[in-house]
Amino acid sequence: MPTDIIVPPLSQTMDSVVLVEWLKAVGDEVVKGEPLFIIETDKANLDVEAPASGVLGQVSAQAGDEVKVRSSIGVIAAPGEEIPAAASGAVAAQAAEVEQGAPTAERPPLAAAVSGPKGQPLPPERLSRVFASPRARGLAASEGVSLSEIKASGPQQMIVERDVRSYLAARAAAPAAPVVTPVARRVAEAAGIDLSVVAPARPGARITRADVEAAASTAEAAVAAEAGRREAAPVEGIQWVDMPSIRRTIARRMLESQQAAAEVTLMRDVDATGMVELRLRLLAELAESDPRPTYTDMLVSIVARVLRQHPYVNAMVDGERIGLSKDVHVAIAIDTERGLLAPVVRNADQKGLLELAEARRSLVERTLDGTVGADELNGGTFTVTNLGTLGVDAFTPIINAPQTAILGVGRIRSAPAVHEGQLCIRQLMFLSLTFDHRVIDGAPAARFLNDVVRLVEKPHLMWL
What we know:
Layout: E1 3-6, E2 16-22, E3 29-30, E4 35-40, E5 45-49, E6 54-56, E7 66-68, E8 72-77, H1 89-98, H2 110-113, H3 124-127, H4 134-143, H5 161-173, H6 182-191, H7 209-232, H8 245-260, E9 263-271, H9 273-285, H10 295-307, E10 315-318, E11 321-324, E12 330-332, E13 334-336, E14 339-341, E15 344-345, H11 353-368, E16 382-386, E17 405-409, E18 413-419, E19 422-436, H12 442-457
Parallel strand pairs: 12-16, 16-17
Antiparallel strand pairs: 1-8, 2-4, 2-7, 3-6, 4-5, 6-8, 9-19, 10-11, 12-15, 13-14, 17-19, 18-19
Helix pairs in contact: 4-5, 6-7, 10-11, 10-12
């Protein structure tokens, strides 16, 4: 039985990747565990290992294609096993699963389903038919579902039983249409607004005139933005380039984070003199040490310890569910040539400063040279992003979904400040905490930030 080559899911939020390159050609021998193909995610290029030993059959995706995770893009046939010429091994394997238990004599070869007599191509009118397995047709008929409404996942775009069941489950889970007030309906008709795209002010509420007017305003803004883009296209001297796939994915995830989360940012101007002085003393004591701790290392260490006391900040959100993590895994945002990546320091709260510094340096080096592992880019429970190294004072970071908060770090600057009743020059910095108000209220978020500030100003308290 051929083995499907499945695109692995690498994170909770990833639904597709780009196939960069096949490392084997069709017909080549492959060994289980050796790199078989390369995929590009929103975070890195990653080798995917062969799931079995054998011969690579015909594949259903080529370099540059965007493919869904958990989908089959080819097969590996066992040594000596014949690979069909008219269809990929993946198609043949799926075809065997479509009608388990049905008499094989009643099923024509799959190639015959897409070709005419003697293998000739079907005419266009035949190609427009909906192909479905007998089980799928029977289930659809019993549920009163039109096959034309169902997306096929079977071989050669065939609708199989699981497609019908997925459609029925999605239809059952779809929320009931909200009630529309008469005034709102008249306003929508006058403005040409489709009520199916209008959301009520809160779940379960009626759609009111205000909801329709808000939707109309949003639609007008979108039209204006699109018109502006079209007008800008022919301007002389402007070169339009397509976003790389990783940039498209980052853009999509940033937009999804902003649209899904109720993001609020709190800022504090912090006296970091104590942290600066402690680092200077450490550098003097650790002159021969490698690596030497950076401000980022110290801040990650502080944040990790504070996160222990704030479980809803050290968490993830999925719709109406909150995942509270028993571990503290801090992601650190890194600017790379390929875009923004955030490798994760695992169990950061359990690491000493030098151990954490070594872990961070190793992650940064491997992230920059593209050798970081996929598992090292996922699973963070909180993110720290430091733009202070680029001279930025303060900013509003965007949450790294599905996390619930992120800390932005500004530059350390010398500035006059009142300290113990005296005006003097101190080392100040801004800390910006963006949090998801769906999960965390303003006061708990402020308490978390205050606890971080307390240890930045008096880092010796970490050991008390």
